[in-house]
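Researcher: I've been going back and forth with a colleague about how Hydroxymethylpyrimidine phosphate kinase protein might be arranged in three dimensions. Neither of us has a model we trust, so I'd like an independent prediction. The organism is Halorhabdus tiamatea SARL4B, in case that matters for your notes. Sequence below.
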Amino acid sequence: MTRNEAPHEPPAVLTIAGSDSGGGAGIQADLKTIEAVGGFGTSAITSVTAQNTTGVQGSHLLPIADIEAQIQAVLEDFDVRAAKTGMLATGEVIETVVEYAEDLPALVVDPVMIAASGDRLLEPDAEDAYEELVAESTLVTPNADEAVVLTGIEPTDEETALEAGETLVEMGADAALVKGGHIAGDDVLDVLVTAEDVRTFRHERIDTDATHGSGCTLSAAIATHIAQGESLADSVSAGIDLLARAVRYNLDVGEGAGAVHHLVEARERAARTETAEAVEKLVDDLIDSDVAPLVPDIGTNVVGATPFAERIQEVAAVEGRITRTMDGVAPNRGVRFGASTHVARYLLDAREVDATFRFATNWRYDDAVADALDTLNGDVVELDGHPTLESGVVSALADAEGPVAVVDPGGDGRVPVTILLVRDRETLLNRTSQLLDAVDDLVSTDGIQSPSTRSRASRPRR
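Model: Here is an independent structure prediction for Hydroxymethylpyrimidine phosphate kinase protein. You can compare it with whatever you and your colleague have in mind.
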């Protein structure tokens, strides 16, 4: 018996750009990004470069007839919903792309002129040819250096970036995204300009030099979102979000600074099943261990972040928390992503310091727990004086190493709480077991009251 096919119909996206033998930029970066975002990547290679993370060692321009043949072959067979350009190298290549522009529903122009390594990728006499291509573009995405070449205006702040963007729109572009990665400042500010509107996108700068392929990845992501029918503003916003994450979780490959992680969002989604299963197993193990002596009146949550988590929706947690019952502890409901805000925010803030933190849970905090924490290995940091639990996390964890327990003694409406931060499931179980043992020892020797609902003797020990 044969199986029926179940074909998928992703929108086709065409990239017209140079090949990067190092795989981090150019055609390679474009195709990875297009597929990751949900499109079907097609290509027309303009140049073959010999390059890696340290620089460009050589470049060979393909004959114009070969470039035209590639573009024509793609357009004759595929319903191309959007295209993007990268390294075009010469005025003749740029003019060739202009000839096909009217056949493209949308065209994102990434005016590649200089590689991240500093190597020039555009012949000086080809700069003027870009004016005609800009005029045909749905969106042009220059960085600060490219904006200077195209407009004569150097973006150094929001005002000058806006001025450069307005000039590009006056040149004929439907929209211009002036990127802020090359503009100094604690934040990266990207400015999107159309004839009707101006939007700014701001995000914190990532402390890394691993930005190889960033422009290619951004423009490919935007083109793919446009191909899927999204608005220009939403496409730009989604592309910027992807790039910010791709730069933070960059790929440590090669001898140079490394490349951006083109597939980071796809990898994040793929990790959700494993993460949810790990949290579910943690909950089962904690219930078997009867953690009632550690559960505060407000209940306990167990959260787990995917390796690339940036948002609460990417953190799995117990919906409704774990609470004490007559028979020990039990979860109110199952595990789902986005179910926790308080503990999840804390874990996400901790990941700003060290992204290897994957799991966290909240336990009660009182004299018994405080004394018990003193007996454990690892760092204990206190957030006393901070207005909210999460607000002091980054500074408090800056010098911490190994397993971490963060405590807030409460006050000003805050409930006292202990948070265990760990990198793997087993460490959380072991730390919890050690904390339970230490609390029980203090209860038995000092008579400190514990909210346990049954005898510690009946609880499995680890």
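Researcher: What would you highlight for our discussion?
Model: I'd start with this: Residues 450-462 have pLDDT under 50 and may be disordered. After that, consider the following. The two ends are 52 Å apart (CA to CA).
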